[in-house]
Amino acid sequence: MVGDHYTDPILDYIGRILLEEEIDENFNGYRFGANLQDIEKPFYDILEQKYPPTSHDKQPISTHLEASHDSNDSPSISSSQESAIESLSSLEFQRGLEEGMKFLPIIDELALDLQANKIENDISSINLIEEEERRGNKGKKNSGMNMDLLEGKNRKLPMLSYEEPIRDDTFDQALLYHGESYEREEISSLHETMRSKANPRGDKESHIDLRDLLLRCANAIAINDHKIAYSLIKEIRKHSSPHGDRTQRMAFAFVSALEARLTGSGCEFYRHLASKRISTTDALKSYHLYIKASPFYRVSYCFANTAILHAVNKSSKIHIIDFGISIGFQWPSLIQSLANNRKDISKLRMTGVDFPQTGFRPAERVEENGRRLRNYAESFNVPFEYQGIASKWEEIRIEDLKIEKDELLIVNSMYQFCRVKDETFGLDSPRNQVLNLIREIKPCIFIQGVFNATYSPFFVTRFRQVLSHYSSVFDILDSRVPRDNKYRELVEQEILASDIMNIVACEGSDWMHRPETYKQCHVRNLRAGFEPVPIEPDIVKVCKEKVRNFYDNRFFIEEDGSWLLQGWKGRILYGLSVWKPKLE
Fold it and tell me: Which of 432, 454, 509, 543 is the most exposed place for a label (fewest CB within 10 A)?
């Protein structure tokens, strides 16, 4: 057999054909071509095209085939035969390729059609997803959500949006200080709106104990009782709503997180929520709503900025490093205060540190902050220099901060330290590494704001803790903001829901929101080589007056050692303190 002498499967196949006794000795290339014509011609008739004439410049191959029929026990193929076979194969392949190409559309048109279809399909899918989100079905197991498409929607489409304003009247109204009468008036206007739109049925609107259903569902998930868990999720969805009372709104956010955990898709859903790009204008209006509804951020920024003004004293060159600058709403009022109280400032340097954003522009937010703050500094005639750093905090080195010897250095961090990894990821945790970096640069003061909460690594206990904490937050919003306010819904179902999704549905390195109580932070800071700075009495006085004059008595401010604490209905929610490195 030829196959015993030739291992190449093509030569083996050709050898078998050459040894086939039924081959017509008179077969030649023209007969093969005629058969090809018989196959091709009907296709040309269908397309109403004329079949091209056959070229007759091919050499007959009968002599080569006939030579293969020599009666030898071990047939061999001469070099001329090999050449003829290769020539035949290449000729027929080329002929088939050329003829086949005639049936294909033009490449450019095909690419354009495919691209158009892709865009149309993507937009249709996105519209379908958004419609489901509006109906409150984004947490259902079989909703058909394509998470890659969802991330693409949020990461890529905003690149086509209009350029947002760096500063306008809306920014000035929310971020600058206009006097106590202005603050009192805008808070009173929200209170009057709330009274005029109050729900006459109150909290009786939700007669189902949704908190109990949520806790039972969490227990069912913990013991892998999927049947009970799914039935409870169905029941909770029936009675929860993003537009209902405080409990219904909270349950709507929590049930999506529970279902994501049950289906094992928590990380994907969290990345989807976290990648949503909230416009700076919407973020500003949500922030403005929140400071009118509660004193927490107004007091926090007043506390930090007053501490900075006390620290700078007669220094003319100031460098503020803000770990977790976010959208930078804290700083326009400080620039305004420096302009009004310190005419001798030679330079205000600011380094804004933030976590990198998802997508193609990880530093977009910190860069936008720089443009906005530079605009405010120019309007108040304050010499200003800005550097933005979008990076994991533990990866930042001293040289990245570009500290100069003759400047007064201040470090600020408001409510973002909880997103830095803790001891769960090693004894030398990233959180301790960042504190060590701050100590090494030897700031004049280190101002820290923390969420007063702690979450257990055990799921059921953690769920009870996070449910209790966010119950107070939803209660504040329902008590202070009308239910039809669209920015309240944005805060609840975008910002708060994203944190809830991460805490409830994620584990391991994907669980990133890990706050500590103010007492735990106190111990950590002491171990890192810091010592607390006593709170100035006038700072406490100003903060307490703001709460007493502008808000109701359900909010409170109290001191515990070097900490200023804020809360609602007896629950401590926020802590503020000032630190400095210990002298060696």
Answer: 509
